[in-house]
Amino acid sequence: VLENRNLQDLIKPQKVEFRSLNFNSTLHWQPGRAREARDTVYFVQYKVYGQSTWQNKDDCWGIQNHVCDLTNETSDIQEPYYGRVKAASAGVYSDWSLSCRFSPWRETMIGPPMVTVVHSNKSIILKLQAPRSPYKRKRGSKIPMTNYYDLLYQVFIINNLLDEQHRVLVYEGKDKVIKIEDLRPGISYCIMAKTYVPMLDRSSAYSSRQCTML
């Protein structure tokens, strides 16, 4: 019994947490201290805060991964959720390990906008597209994150003659098409953009660089 108890403690999952980008929400955990227990499998349950019963996540029942996709299970983005994980090895089951409370609307990270660059002789025209959620409209298209938040776009320009860190904010607002004018021909400029959520005071990562020579 003591050996079983030890194994139970050693295989118990650690650091159970939700990670979420644009409402793509996954539960992550780390294996217990018994690293050598190769045959360990994991079982995942979830529930809405305040509910008494836990739901099994069938796709994550007896899996060897350390991640479980709960995007569909957390689609009511205003609700808070919990996830929990237990491990089994050699016929011994650990106790459950619980995540912190997770509220998708408050906690999901917003991705950067998609940026398309079109240039004319002395200006650059940008087309910005909001990141999309995994949730679909009746017609099948994915719902953009602008449906859930009041988003602003921040556009930065890097003049390649200058230091890479010298990013200048040239636009902040909601327009999807932006014109940056009075640029010098023959110089390479790079554009990066972020999504900003004023209500949560949170910015996305930078979009990938789009460089163009006028």
TrEMBL record:
Keywords: Disulfide bond, Receptor, Repeat, Secreted, Signal. Signal peptide: none annotated. Pfam families: Interfer-bind (PF09294), Tissue_fac (PF01108). Residues 12-107 form the Fibronectin type-III domain. Belongs to the type II cytokine receptor family. Receptor for IL22. Binds to IL22, prevents interaction with the functional IL-22R complex and blocks the activity of IL22 (in vitro). May play an important role as an IL22 antagonist in the regulation of inflammatory responses. One of its GO terms (molecular function) is cytokine receptor activity. This is Interleukin-22 receptor subunit alpha-2.
